[in-house]
Amino acid sequence: MKQRKRSLGNVQVQILQAVARGVGHGFDIMDETELPSGTVYPALSRLERDGLVKSRWENARIAHEEKRPPRRYYEVTSEGRERLAEALLHYKDLARLLAKVVRETR
Amino acid sequence: MLARILADLTRAVVRTASFLVPRDERARWVQEWEAELSHRLRGPVVDTRDALRLLRRSGGAVPHALWHLREAWRWDSFSQDFRQAVRGLAQRPGFVLTASITFAAGIGAATALFSVIEAVVLRPLPYPEPERLVYLFEVQGKAGGERHGPAPANVLDWRRESQSLSEVAAWWINSTTLLGDSGNEAEEVPSAQVTADFFAAIGVAPLLGRTFEPGEIASGERVTLLSYELWQRRFGGEETIVGRDVRFKDASWRVLGVMPASFRTPGTLEGEVQLFKPWDFERGYADHAGPPRDWRFLQAAARIAPGVSLRSAQLEIEAIAEGLAAAHPATNRGWSVALVPIREVLVGRAEPALLVLAGAVLFLLLLACANVAGLLLVRASARGRELAVRTALGASRGRLVRQLLLESSLLALGGGVLGVAIARAGVALLVRFQPGGIFRIEETVLDSRVLAFALAASAAAGLLSGLAPAFQSATSAPSESLKGSGGVVSLDRRRLRLRSALVVSEIALSVVLLVGTMLFLRSFTRILQVDPGFDPENLLVVRMRLDDDKYRKGGAHHYYSALLSEIRSLPGVEAAGGSTALPMDSVDVDFDRPFWRDGEPRPTGGGPGVRLRMTTTGYFETMRIPLLEGRIFDERDDRTKPRVLIVNETMAQRTWPGESPLGRRLVLDYQEYQAPYEVVGVVGDTRFEGYRSRPAPEAYIPHAQNPYLPMNLVLRTAPGSSPLALAPVVRKAVLAMDASEPVHSLETMSELAGSSLAHDRFSAVVMTVFGATALLLAGIGLYGVVAQSVSQRQREMGLRMALGADRSKILALVLGGGLRLAMGGSVLGVLGAILGGRYLTTVLFETSPSEPGAILLAVSVSMATVVLACAVPASRAARLDPKTTLHLD
What ipTM goes with this model? Predict the structure, then answer.
């Protein structure tokens, strides 16, 4: 079933941006965005469900060497990239608009 | 060290949260969290601060797990399941029909009964702050004695002395004749004489105009208030009615106002009061020695003052009653007062029967659920492979359970819709044939609350009946079903066990209901067997009320004796007579007066009472009340002769035990004279208050010696003829006597007697419907399980037959299986019935709730049903051809 296209929330944009920069593991994304874990993980799961990010498991050999299970690595999909670009464009417009409003109220 | 502990704690949090994650996602979910944690915790030394941070971070596992949980139950997967469920059900219309009808029977019965309970018990009383509104009764002896309506003078004293009661009101329901005018016929309507506080105590303001003012009441002005119904019906709902005069038989009365449509006069069950007239005791009893203190006939209610508890108000009123008993020992000694919350007075009588029926309907609903659960189990075993394939293809168990519950809920919802239709019809029947005397039962409607109940009942029934199959499929391994017929046997054996358990509980529930039905039927039969003490067939009751000014004193006697001889000469009339009060009749003038044997002192505090009624000649013959001793009244007994009396058997035995009362003299504290009466006859007892009532002491006074204006005439017609057919000629004869004195009402004695049976007939009929439905459901359930077991054991049976078992053995095998289940169910059911029986004691008439006869009958009926339900599959099994069955698969 096709998902209805919903505009991305603030949090999702931050996370998507971090993932797009190559920060792919859940805990690293928290460090990067300074968002709490209770926000990041559900948002990641939602992005994955909506097809904006995809995940793969880390090479088992590396994990084995470090004596831990393989980590999950998230990447932005092409649709995610498009949506992120749209959102950033929207933010830029917003910023210009805000700057204008601030200038005019001075 | 601390860091280690914190790390362990962190892992524990994640592991605990993982249980929220749906099973098919769980492993990956745990791995992701574990990997991140291990990655951070790697290396021999971990900083305590880092460990704390990780612990805080692990808190995020809970919302994350919850997200997955929510996701699993999300709408689009739900709607997918929904479509699948609908598709699946649509393929089996027969199954859907059976299950829906089964649900409909249970939900319909429950909804119909709930709508009655909602109207009678749950809906708020039509009075503001009903918890402060209490009825006042005089009781003989301390609390718990027989309740009597209070006497006027006592009500006045309570009002004067009580601090904890505000607004003490009294009223008396009688009737008023509205004279005919353009477009309307003369008619008699129920009316109430009310004291000044009445509307304030009840707390309902008029819709139009105003209520009485104290001055108007004291001065005896002719002012009146109308009910909404009368205003609409007779006065076209015109607002100009306020201030206008309306003609009653005695005079013109000015209308002060109209009460709202929702207003109900407390304590009227036979028809709403249509008119209110003010009543001042001092004025009303001016021609007596003031308001009487021992004529206990009023209805009275009061409001408990704000901040006062019922208990302290009760203590205060008891103290006042004690004071009155000391001041007026002749009339008040031994009498106290009871304050009874209005709710208890209005609803109390109906509650026990409704509770019993509610219990019965709950059982019926459970039975329906068990039945559908059984049907679903059959279906689940038939589609075991489908479910197994779905599991193998990755459907989680939760998803399968959800799907099964969804199916049963859909069935229940369908059943609920059908059930509401049944309830609608049931409620219509119920309101039409309602027993008089259940508060507000005629207001029963299927409103939004009832529909909400039906929806809730359907949802609960759907979930409940879906549980067993859902549990079954959740606990069975898919591989077993996929293995084919070899695997199916062991799986189905477990299913069969579950089904058998369901059947046992169905039979148990139906036995409980059947025992209840038998008890109600027995109780009702016993009531029908009660000899009422007279012959109620072929009697026409004609109510009359003569005008006071015209027929005061002797006039009434001459009028009635002339009318009666006129009536006796009518063709078709075999006998006729009259009495101020008739058995089985709730609208009459009936007195319960103190008495004592002549020569003995008057008992203080009232003493025992006797019911007095004035009867004309011909009354006992017409009613066929047998004469046991002495003579009945005849033309000799007029005002010029000594006062005579006829007593009933109970009165004779209580007053002169072991002696003949003939020629004895009795003093009656009745009206202004306390004259001795000579007993001239003894007649049989009547069940005066209805079939359930015990005979009470009664005494009859010749109407000629004590003429009375209101009378009930009785006419006996030939057997086989309809008494009501005489109504037109009787009306004509009455108008021919005096055109201004019409007949007030006409009805047959069988109607009166029938309405005294209405409560019990209602319970018996409803219970019979429940019991029969229960039997049918249990029969269907049993049939299903036996038929399934036969079809699954075909090979086994074929083998047995091949090895020499004959058809009777096979028949016995199948029947035995069914009977074993039935036996278990019956034992449980009988236990349940005995345990639950104590709730029936107040409802049953001379019938013990654990009566062996009723239990035996119920068990036999249920066994007969069991044999019937097993007979078809058993005979099918006996006809099996071993050659074919052994080649199955």
Answer: 0.91
